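pipeline: protein-struct stage 2 | run 1193 | Sec-independent protein translocase protein TatC
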Amino acid sequence: MSAVKDRGTRNPEKRMSLGEHLLELRKRLFISAIAIVVGMAAGWVLTDLFVWQAIQEPVNLVVEAQQGTDAASTGIIFPTISSAFDLRLQIAFTLGIVISAPVWLYQVFAFLVPGLSSKERKYTFGFFATAIPLFFAGCAAGWFVLPNIVKLMTSFVPEGAETLLTAKEYIDFVLKLVVAIGIAFVLPVFIVLLNFAGVISASSIIKSWRVAILVIVLFTAFATPSADVVSMFMLALPMIGLYFAAYGIAFLHDRRVAKRNELEFGTAV
């Protein structure tokens, strides 16, 4: 008991050594992996219930629009005998990531907590509670623009030709679009977290606004087809708004810290 007290006295800020950080990282990764596997099992069941029908719906809408016209016919094909099984695993894994998002996002924040002071740790739950809805909102945004993207890209096929979408390529595109946008929506929360941790200041955030907007536009251009400018801006605008919202929160935090320092140490600080 005395040894524990002695360690607490010698390390009041609970700083961790490199070895302890690696052990903590391994623990967080293991918990996240277990959560993803459990979510993957649920995703395997949900795929048959409604997920595959939902993924196929944008293509079905294109097919319905083409009926009775001279437009090119469209459909999804499975070129190999194992394609259906492989894609079901892929869908289940992606659903596992989405379903388990509260768990692995918490593990990320929990891993960063030891790097914060005791006063800053109280904000961690607020960051976590904000990151979860933002992640799901990002996934929903990616899903929202998907039908427009499918409709646009299939419209370039010449009349009389057929659009045979390989299932693997189509599923890869859908899943990466949804998850990538979901993760991108969470990044402003980490910007605020780094500000509260004293790593970056609000002034440095706003100074980089041009670079941030360029990166966001390039990211959305990469995530969506180059011809679909509307979907690109539909994704870019909320991400830009979140970036400036993160700056606003960081600005208020820095101003509050400056006022507190001024009251405690005088105007010289």
